[in-house]
Amino acid sequence: MSWVLVFPIAVPFITAVFAYLARNYPAGRWISLAGSVLSLVASAALMVAVLRDGVIAAQMSNWDAPFGITLVADYLSAVMVVITAITGLATAIYALGEIPEKTERLGFYALFQTLIAGVTGAFLTGDLFNLYVWFEVMLIASFSLLVIGGGKDRLDAGIKYVALNLVSTLVFLSGIGLLYGITGTLNMADLRGAVAAAENQALVTVIAMMFMVGFGVKAAVFPLFFWLPASYHTPYFAISAVFAGLLTKVGVYALMRMFTLVFVGDVGFTHEILIWVSLLTMFTGVIGAAAQMDFRKILSFHIISQIGYMTLGLALYTPLALMGGVFYLVHHIIVKANLFFVAGLAKQYAGSTDLNKIGGLYKSAPLLAALFIIPAFSLAGFPPLSGFWAKYLIVKAAIELNMWFVTFVSLLVGLLTIYSMTKIWGYAFWKPHPEGYDPTPDRAPPRVTTAMITPIAGLAAMTIIIGFFPEPFVQFAETAATQLLDPSDYVTTVLGVQP
Amino acid sequence: MEALTAIIIGILTAASVYLMLARTFMRFLFGLVLLSNAVNLTIFASGRMTKGHPALVPYGADAPLQAVGNALPQALVLTAIVIGFGLLAFALALGFETFRRTGTMDTDEMRFAEPKEEEQK
Fold first, then answer.
1. Residues from chain A contacting residue B31 (CB–CB below 8 Å)
2. What is the value of ipTM here, to two decimals?
3. pTM of the predicted model, to two decimals?
């Protein structure tokens, strides 16, 4: 058994246990931090192994595939695991500053580490039912984190989030049941051959649609995204950052995995739907953001609009487009988590996240202003930041396919994103602080702001590095896309034989 | 047997959709319970409804002696039931706490996270 695949999941789980036991002591938060560092080490080891061998797989308890549960990592899984660990570490540091002791005693760090374990498990599993289980691990942890230490607004948000996500889970689960019914297997690599050989291809397409809806709710695509803007602006900033960075991307990852590995029999039909879904997602998201006046609500709607770009990369289904999709996924997690971190610190400095009630941050917190510029303009796609390359790849793929409408919408949405980012900049940073609102309600001690600004600076540095040296990242995304489009390596590694 | 199961699943789903369209969160949860059961039955039925024996290998033998039922869907359903139970327990607790704090279960009245425009000002 290949331990390198197990550690990225096991480390956060074990950390969760110890963090729970130590929840009443300051040690709890340091255990969480140490666990996050170890997770990063474990995921780096996984990345090294994947870079060396291409695709690696491990059969749990030595039950051979397709009978046992397989853990498998290709380039896409590996990079997602690494980025999860990075986001996890950034959040663990940020939480040191933000999370009050009362919430820590409720087991905050244990839940947070469980969430990371669930996300990592979803990225690494090669078994469909196991994917469902990881989704549930992730969900139950996210439910609790969303409402923890909360007032009425968190409970309200929690109800909407819980309700819609539970329904999507059931759709996904019945899809699994039906797929098992027609193929007799749940191993994703095995399913590729089994689905292609299925007699009733129309039924396969129906099941593919169930998966699209199930994962679509998780990924927050049009018209299934309503839970996201209803809930993401209420929890602790550390939590909304980790949600914004990781949770929806698990849905996108699952879509990418299933619709390149398993459901490729009727690409003309399924991926055409995805194209329109993506365009509408991009557009409604960015329009929704334009109507909002709250820092986090604007960012929440932008998650939706950016998800559209990623699913568009999948929907166009060319090597270049998928490469863009993978690149976008990685870039977006870093940038979006960072923007939510910035929002939290802005609240510390100015007392609110309502853009009408804050201002003058450029003067009162120049460092934060500088650090906001980087992810904000990266999100909008300004060269030379990471978002520019991500958008460039997607748009180029659309142009190569002569899809001018798609190209037009992608560019338009980019333009409208700039509008939202300059709106935040103008209101929160540039204009003077509005009268009647206390600019510095209770200024946090320096210890708090240091803990909060460190991850912001770190993630901003990563954005700049990806922006100025995109070459290795693009090459990596290219290999990942090649592996997705031609998963024979994946299938052979998991099953041990060429089917 | 298949036809009967299919009809039962259909009725459960229809009833659950009706319940879930209600504004009250409690009704929504009851709908969710029914839907969850419908899905579990679907998984169970997808393993084929055959008359068989328990999937057990007698002591000393290498394989089951006669045709056995498909054990995998049962394992899947068991897992799904356990997970569903946990999620439902959480959702119930959430609903109860929300009712305790806000005094309402009507999702239309729950505008605490997203207050209407005029209330904001």
1. none
2. 0.91
3. 0.92
